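Appendix C reproduces, verbatim, an entry submitted by the partner laboratory led by Prof. M.T., so that reviewers can inspect both the input and the predicted structure.
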Amino acid sequence: MPRAVPRLALPELPAPRVNTLTHGVRVLDAVDIGMVLRWTRGVRQLPQDEVAASLGVSPELLRGMERGDRGVRLQTALDVLARLGYDVVLVPRDPALSLREHGTPPTTSRRRP
């Protein structure tokens, strides 16, 4: 049975006025994810310990993620990003691999609403 993802009691940021697919952040490695996490926490002006507690992770794990530690499980990183309000979108670098132009895209697990 999938684990319920708790709602964060973080202030809401205004909805983006642009298409997030064209104005998102390109993430190439764990350091980039850490920069996004630090930026998000800074914009919301919240201490690391408080954010870690609201995410259900240890302060050490969040500190490591913000530093770009590579030992974090992919599912943990995806859960943290989702709880902070981020979607992870895969965009093929090769146009020949377009997921939408060549029929039905591969099915994905829908564990969260």
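The helical segments are 20-23, 30-43, 48-55, 59-67, 74-83. Additional entries are available on request from the coordinating office.
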